[in-house]
C-alpha cells in the first residue's frame, strides 16, 4: 500500500501542538513533503482554534484543543507555542510517555534537556532525562550548522556575531507589520529627515521602533548589563550545542526590513590556522550547508535567495587579514524552516527512528 | 556689516567641486548653516552642469565648469567627485596653491596626504606635502569619532565590524533605485519564496542584487582573497586615522534597505580592561558623539533617528561577557553629512583658520 492508504499501524503517532501558528503552518507543509514516518498526525492548538480543519499529507485533519487527553496514544509531540505554554504543557505530555520536541525557550538551557541540531549533535537527542528535547532559537540555528562543520576541523575558540534578522522572527504579527509599514513608506520621501518614519508610523507592532527603511538594534527583552535576551540565547545555545562551555561569544542582534530569512556576519576564531580554500571545501561538503561564494560573479547569499529553502547558505568566506586563525563569513538561513519547523521535524524523525528500531529489533 | 553684506575681503576663498552631486547638495546646505568663514564661494561642476544657478548662504551662485582657471584666487577647494576626476584635478588645483580637501578614494592611502577627522587627528591636517588633505570613506567615518574617544582612554587593539549601509552610500542613483524597488514590492507577497524579488526587479542599479526587503553583503569592487574594496577601506583608513599601523581589523560590509545613515555593529578590543560605565561616560563627553543608550526605555540609535543630524550616535554599549577588554556597540552616522559633506567642511574650516591666523599674526 502507498500514499494515503499506507499501513501506518506500526508507525509512531505524532502530535503538532501550535499547528495554526506561523511556524506550525510551515511545519505542516514540511511534514507533507518529507518522507512519511508517522502513523497518526494529530493537530493541537488553543481551544479558540479547535474544530478548524487543516491539510497535512494531503488529508484534512480537525484541530483538537490542548488538553491532557490530546496526548493519549501519542509517541512524539512537536511544540511550537509561547514559552509559558511549553513550560506548563511539555511536562504533562512527557509524563504520559510522549517525547516532546520543544521549539520554545522554556527548556533550552535546562541541564536535563538536550538542545539538538541533527547535523551537529544528533547523539545528544538520545539522552533526555525529562522526556523533552529542545530546538534552538532561530538566530543560533542560522549559523550553527556551518560553524559545527568548521569547528570539527579547526576547533572553535571565539565568535563575534552581528545579526540581520527578519520580521517573521517575531511571528505572523511581525510579517504583517512590516508589510503595512512598507506600503506606508512607498512613494514617500521618508528616510531623509530624522524621525520622519516615526511621524508616519505609530504602530511598531512587535518591534521596538519602525522597521521599514530602518534597522532596529534590538530583539527580545532587556537582560543584565544591557544585553538582550536574543543575544544571550545565541551565546548560551551555541556553547551548549557545540559542547564548548568556555566558548567566547559576543553578539549584537539587529532587526532589518526583510520578511523571512535571518542573516549573520560571523567572525570565527579557531585553535588552528585556517585557509580560505580549506574552509570553502569543508562548507561545500557539509550536510545541510550550501556554499555560495563567488563574489566576482555576484554570487553570495541574500535573504531573498534563501527564503523557502532548507539549508544554511554560506558566502563571503575570507581568512581575516590580520589573524590567520580567523574566518569572516556571511550566512543566511530561513528562520521559519531550518530555524524552527524543519529542525523540529528532523529531531522528531530521529526519535521516530529510535522508536521504530526498538519496536522491530 | 552682517549677513550677505559682510566684508569678506580678508577671508579665504572656497571652491566646491562637484557642487551638483548628492554630497555637494548637502554640502551647500551645511555651508549655509555653519558659521561663515569664507570670502567667495565658487561652485564648480562638470561642463554639463555649468551655467546652473544654486543657492548657498542665501545667494544664487552660477556654477562654472571644472578647468584650471576655476581655481584662480581660490585658497581652499572641496572635491566631491569620482576617484578618477580627483586623481586628475586635485594636483592641478594644488599646483596653483589651492589647498584641496578631497572626498574621493584617490589619495586616502597616499603617505604624503593626511587622512583627517577633526575630532580625532586635527593636527595631521597641517602636514600636507602634496597640498591635499583626504576625507575618509563614509563607512569608516560612521564609527571612527566614537572609537577615537574610546582609544584615547583604553588603547585600541582590534576591531570586528559588520556594517548596515544605506542606499545613498551609492549616491543619488542608490536612493532612486531603493525608492523604486520599495514601491514595487509594496502590497505584494514578495519575500516568502526564493528569488521572488529578483523575478520582480530586473534593474538593481548600483547594487549587486535587489535591495528592497533584502540585505546584500557586498559594497565596492572585488579585491584579493574575496575582500571587497569597501571592507579594505574601513581597515586601512581606521589604521591611518588612529595612527595604529598594526591594528587588527576584520570587516563585513552589507547594504540594507535604508535611504540614508550607515550603522555598524562594532566589537572593539582594547589594551586595558573596560567597564560599561566608563565607556558610556567617555562617549557622553566626546565631541561629535551622542550617547543614546537606554534600551529599557527603547533608547538606541536607528538610522531614521539619526538621518539629517551631524553627530555619531552610539548605543547598545556593553562589555563583552567573555572578554573584560572588549566592548560591543551599535553606532549610526549620516553618511552624507558627517560621513562626507560635514567632515569635508570641518577640515576646510581648519585650513581656513590656519590661513586667517597667518594673515593676521
TrEMBL record, chains A, B:
Which residues hold NADP(+)?
Answer: 20-23, 48-49, 168-169, 335
In the record, biological process GO terms are:
'de novo' L-methionine biosynthetic process; diaminopimelate biosynthetic process; isoleucine biosynthetic process; lysine biosynthetic process via diaminopimelate; threonine biosynthetic process
Using the UniProt record, name the top-level EC class of this enzyme in a single word: oxidoreductase
E.C. no: 1.2.1.11
Q: Which residues bind phosphate?
A: 108
Question: Locate the Semialdehyde dehydrogenase NAD-binding domain: which residues?
Answer: 13-128
| Annotated keywords | Amino-acid biosynthesis, Diaminopimelate biosynthesis, Lysine biosynthesis, Methionine biosynthesis, NADP, Oxidoreductase, Threonine biosynthesis
Q: In which pathway does it act?
A: Amino-acid biosynthesis; L-threonine biosynthesis; L-threonine from L-aspartate: step 2/5; Amino-acid biosynthesis; L-lysine biosynthesis via DAP pathway; (S)-tetrahydrodipicolinate from L-aspartate: step 2/4; Amino-acid biosynthesis; L-methionine biosynthesis via de novo pathway; L-homoserine from L-aspartate: step 2/3
Q: Which SUPFAM superfamilies match?
A: Glyceraldehyde-3-phosphate dehydrogenase-like, C-terminal domain, NAD(P)-binding Rossmann-fold domains
Which is an annotated GO molecular function term of this record?
NAD binding
Chain sites annotated for binding substrate = 165, 255
Q: Which residues form the active site?
A: 138, 262
Top-level division of the source organism's lineage: Bacteria
Reactions accelerated catalytically = L-aspartate 4-semialdehyde + phosphate + NADP(+) = 4-phospho-L-aspartate + NADPH + H(+)
Complex formation: Homodimer.
The record's function comment reads: Catalyzes the NADPH-dependent formation of L-aspartate-semialdehyde (L-ASA) by the reductive dephosphorylation of L-aspartyl-4-phosphate.
Q: Which NCBIfam families match?
A: asd_B, PRK14874.1
Query: What family, per the record?
Result: Belongs to the aspartate-semialdehyde dehydrogenase family.
Protein name in the entry = Aspartate-semialdehyde dehydrogenase
| Organism of this sequence | Kitasatospora kifunensis
Amino acid at each position: 500500500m502507498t500514499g494515503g492508504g499506507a499501513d501506518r499501524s506500526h508507525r509512531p503517532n505524532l502530535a503538532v501542538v501550535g499547528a495554526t501558528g506561523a511556524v506550525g503552518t510551515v511545519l505542516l507543509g514540511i511534514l507533507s513533503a518529507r518522507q512519511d514516518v508517522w502513523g497518526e498526525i494529530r493537530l493541537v492548538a488553543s481551544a479558540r482554534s479547535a474544530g478548524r480543519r487543516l491539510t497535512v499529507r494531503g488529508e484534512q485533519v480537525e484541530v483538537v484543543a490542548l488538553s491532557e487527553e490530546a496526548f493519549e496514544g501519542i509517541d512524539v509531540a512537536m511544540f511550537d507555542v509561547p514559552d509559558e505554554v511549553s513550560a506548563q504543557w511539555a511536562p504533562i505530555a512527557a509524563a504520559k510517555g510522549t517525547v516532546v520536541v520543544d521549539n520554545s525557550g522554556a527548556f533550552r538551557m535546562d541541564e536535563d534537556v538536550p538542545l539538538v541540531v541533527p547535523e551537529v549533535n544528533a547523539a545528544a537527542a538520545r539522552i533526555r532525562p525529562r522526556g523533552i528535547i529542545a530546538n534552538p532559537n532561530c538566530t543560533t540555528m542560522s549559523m550553527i550548522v556551518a560553524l559545527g562543520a568548521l569547528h570539527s576541523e579547526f576547533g572553535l575558540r571565539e565568535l563575534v556575531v552581528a545579526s540581520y534578522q527578519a520580521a517573521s522572527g517575531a511571528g505572523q504579527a511581525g510579517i504583517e507589520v512590516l508589510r503595512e509599514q512598507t506600503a506606508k513608506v512607498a512613494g514617500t520621501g521618508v528616510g531623509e529627515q530624522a524621525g520622519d518614519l516615526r511621524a508616519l508610523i505609530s504602530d511598531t507592532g512587535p518591534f521596538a521602533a519602525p522597521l521599514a527603511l530602518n534597522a532596529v538594534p534590538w530583539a527580545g527583552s532587556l537582560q543584565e548589563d544591557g544585553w538582550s535576551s536574543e543575544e544571550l540565547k545565541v551565546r548560551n545555545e551555541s556553547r551548549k550545542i557545540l559542547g564548548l562551555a568556555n566558548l567566547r561569544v559576543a553578539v549584537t542582534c539587529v532587526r532589518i526590513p526583510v520578511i523571512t530569512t535571518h542573516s549573520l556576519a560571523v567572525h570565527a576564531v579557531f585553535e588552528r590556522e585556517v585557509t580560505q580554500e580549506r574552509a570553502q571545501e569543508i562548507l561545500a561538503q557539509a550536510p545541510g550547508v550550501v556554499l555560495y561564494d563567488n563574489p566576482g560573479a555576484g554570487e553570495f547569499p541574500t535573504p531573498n535567495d534563501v527564503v523557502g529553502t532548507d539549508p544554511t547558505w554560506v558566502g563571503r568566506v575570507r581568512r581575516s587579514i590580520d589573524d590567520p586563525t580567523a574566518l569572516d563569513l556571511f550566512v543566511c538561513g530561513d528562520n521559519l524552516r531550518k530555524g524552527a519547523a524543519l529542525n523540529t521535524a528532523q529531531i522528531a524523525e530521529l526519535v521516530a527512528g529510535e522508536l521504530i528500531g526498538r519496536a522491530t529489533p
